[in-house]
Amino acid sequence: EESEDRRPFRQRLLVVANRLPVSAVRRGEDSWSLEISAGGLVTALLEEPNPYSDDFFKGVKEFEARWIGWAGVNVPDEVGQKALTRALAEKLLNSANDVYRVLQKCIPVFLDEEIVHQYYNGYCNNILWPLFHYLGLPQEDRLATTRSFQSQFAAYKKANQMFADVVNKHYEEGDVVWCHDYHLMFLPKCLKEYNSEMKVGWFLHTPFPSSEIHRTLPSRSELLRSVLAADLVGFHTYDYARHFVSACTRILGLEGTREGVEDQGRLTRVAAFPIGIDSHRFISALEALPVQDHIRELAERFKGRKVMLGVDRLDMIKGIPQKILAFEKFLEENPNWRDKVVLLQIAVPTRTDVPEYQKLTSQVHEIVGRINGRFGTLSAVPIHHLDRSLDFHALCALYAITDVALVTSLRDGMNLVSYEFVACQDAKKGVLILSEFAGAAQSLGAGAILVNPWNITEVAASIAQALNMPADEREKRHKHNFKHVISHTAQEWAETFVSELNDTVVEAQLRTRQ
Ligand code: ADQ
């Protein structure tokens, strides 16, 4: 009993996101292999393996965290489900590789194939994702296998309810629940229905569009009301928060205040919490030997040429075709640069089973092929396009040797690639060309060259400006951005959100006390 008393009490944080930060591959009836997978949220929350620490959240150390989400695989049988749950909970607990310690904190949600098809591929990725990025109004026939909008929304709600069931099963009094992203807009409501005293926060990683866009969504009101069930609602930028509040006032007729949205005396706090990166992890990686080796190799390979870099998930929101066309225009207009510059475009394929993403891949390949045919020589091509993800060390080395980074998202909640590039450029002081439609434009705008990615002529001119920029101007711009990137980290972001959520007094508790 005595030793129990001495153990410090740690409040628990339940992080709920559509995907667990792992990919699971079935090896047998009851065996699984697990691997950590990358992505925006993972980058923000995962701690680098640290033999001296038990926490996987750096910034929210005082909390004991659990991550609840879908493992990304269909496991129809109970034997498999139990085995995967166990694998996530304990299998790699004693692994020599510290990275796997994170896995013991994961709790899976199982979704069957039909639900995944309608909820994830359908409602999330074919309706909400394009809508929130201003790339398509909700249309019933967006999905090749025409499912009705209504049945997709029903599946969305059902999936959210399944997440709520798992959260509820693991919830203990005093826990803080942090829901993530557009996949789980229905979750706050489901959770509060289970327990009105639960502290629930919801954070959106994408933009929240203008209320005029949101109001085209047939389920517009139900989604807004459900998000409002949360105690704290967060966005990357003040603009997204403002759009959300306007949607609530215009569509639901509620009152917007400086604090958030009020409904019959109950306030939902709405605020901006701009994410950052673990800048220290990038800066210190540059000193690692394997990274130094990569840097030397790359510098040798591209000797005599300026390197331009794009790193994106292959997604329509990233504006990859527009970027490549702008580079073509630049080559067209600047013949003297043709053999002195190279564009490295690294694009990780995502959502590869969706026809629109397959179309995008072939479109990009076609443009790259055409431009390389047009401007390539027997010894060199202007564009190197890779359809794959790079490991952390290779990525750091690429960021470090780059002269100009091109981030031309058509819309992007924040965009962490721009932050990572800046973190790795303290020696080189390269130039960042950044879309004004990325959330990052609000934080790195003063140091970057801001562009409208739809205006190919303007982007081409910015490439010329960046390549010709004098060293003192590059240094001034870099300093500004570097200061921001090292002082606004992912850890602080998580800490700020969670502590604000924790400080929120849940209305239900107030009522009980009165
Ligand atoms: P994403 O759309 O995934 O995230 P981003 O913020 O750029 O976009 O994060 C991508 C992450 O994946 C970065 O850490 C990057 O290093 C990594 N990555 C991308 N391409 C890679 C490649 N080829 N090889 C290796 N790694 C690669 C969503 C939103 C963003 C928001 C984040 C966080 O769309 O707007 O910034 O969530 O909230």
UniProtKB/TrEMBL annotation:
<dbReference type="GO" id="GO:0003825">
    <property type="term" value="F:alpha,alpha-trehalose-phosphate synthase (UDP-forming) activity"/>
</dbReference>
<dbReference type="GO" id="GO:0005829">
    <property type="term" value="C:cytosol"/>
</dbReference>
<comment type="similarity">
    <text>In the C-terminal section; belongs to the trehalose phosphatase family.</text>
</comment>
<comment type="similarity">
    <text>In the N-terminal section; belongs to the glycosyltransferase 20 family.</text>
</comment>
<dbReference type="GO" id="GO:0005992">
    <property type="term" value="P:trehalose biosynthetic process"/>
</dbReference>
<keyword id="KW-0328">Glycosyltransferase</keyword>
<dbReference type="GO" id="GO:0004805">
    <property type="term" value="F:trehalose-phosphatase activity"/>
</dbReference>
<keyword id="KW-0808">Transferase</keyword>
<protein>
    <recommendedName>
        <fullName>alpha,alpha-trehalose-phosphate synthase (UDP-forming)</fullName>
        <ecNumber>2.4.1.15</ecNumber>
    </recommendedName>
</protein>
